[in-house]
Amino acid sequence: MNRSDHLKVLIDEQALQERVKTLGRQIREDYGEEPITAIGVLKGSFIFMADLVRAIGGDVKVEFLGVSSYHGGTRSTGVVRITQDLRHPIEGQHCLIIEDIVDTGLTMDYLHRMLDVRGPKSLKTVSLLDKPANREIEGVDIDFVGFTIPDEFVVGYGLDLGELFRNLPYIAVYTP
Ligand code: IMP
């Protein structure tokens, strides 16, 4: 079986690009001319973040947080491990957490609580994808969502399965 036999396009490249541009405009409108500290959650958000910060425009600082919650499989372990912390304090800054996908909500909830105590001026969140079917944390805060998707394991545009498929320019459902 060829690897492409496992992949079915869910969101194509054009739809992704259009939605990310709209999200960027919406986020910039929300913040007005205020500078934003964009905090990308590695590794999954790196491609989304690169496109999103350009769509946001204006003054944007870029920071990264390394997080590991899956260990190569398609199911969450429920354990959030910080593999790389921020390099600079965020006190007094308008911060925007950038995630690739919110599934159980454990990661976003953990990161929100972890950063909130560092005293940002504001703390908002954006996720390219929202998979509400598996939510374990009710009321997890996502201020801006790209697409709400069904309960399927997806790859591409930064999202991986065992570190592969991140470089696909579209989002695809992976079926083993
Ligand atoms: P949560 O903590 O269960 O909300 O999961 C968040 C993290 O799990 C995301 O940042 C992804 O890295 C990973 N994840 C969840 N669902 C998927 C998926 O369908 N494909 C790839 N990674 C996923």
Descriptive notes:
The protein is an alpha/beta fold and 176 residues long. It has one domain: Rossmann fold (3-Layer(aba) Sandwich), CATH 3.40.50. The strands form 2 sheets. Strands 4-3-2-5-6-7 form a 6-stranded mixed beta sheet, with helices on both faces. It has a 3-stranded antiparallel beta sheet with strand order 1-9-8, covered by helices on one side. Strand 5, helix 3 and strand 6 form a beta-alpha-beta unit. The longest helix has 19 residues. The radius of gyration is 16 Å and the shape is globular. The structure holds inosinic acid (IMP). Inosinic acid binds next to strand 5, helix 3 and strand 8.
What is the SS-derived class? alpha/beta
Shape field: globular
CATH class: Alpha Beta
How is the CATH topology named? Rossmann fold
Features:
about 180 residues; alpha/beta; Rossmann fold; six-stranded mixed β-sheet; three-stranded antiparallel β-sheet; 3 helices; 9 strands; about 25% helix; globular; binds inosinic acid
In short:
This protein is an alpha/beta fold and 176 residues long.
Task: Chart the SSEs and their pairings.
Layout: E1 7-11, H1 13-31, E2 36-42, H2 46-56, E3 60-68, E4 81-84, E5 94-102, H3 106-116, E6 122-130, E7 144-148, E8 154-155, E9 171-174
Parallel strand pairs: 2-3, 2-5, 5-6, 6-7
Antiparallel strand pairs: 1-9, 3-4, 8-9
Bound molecules: inosinic acid.
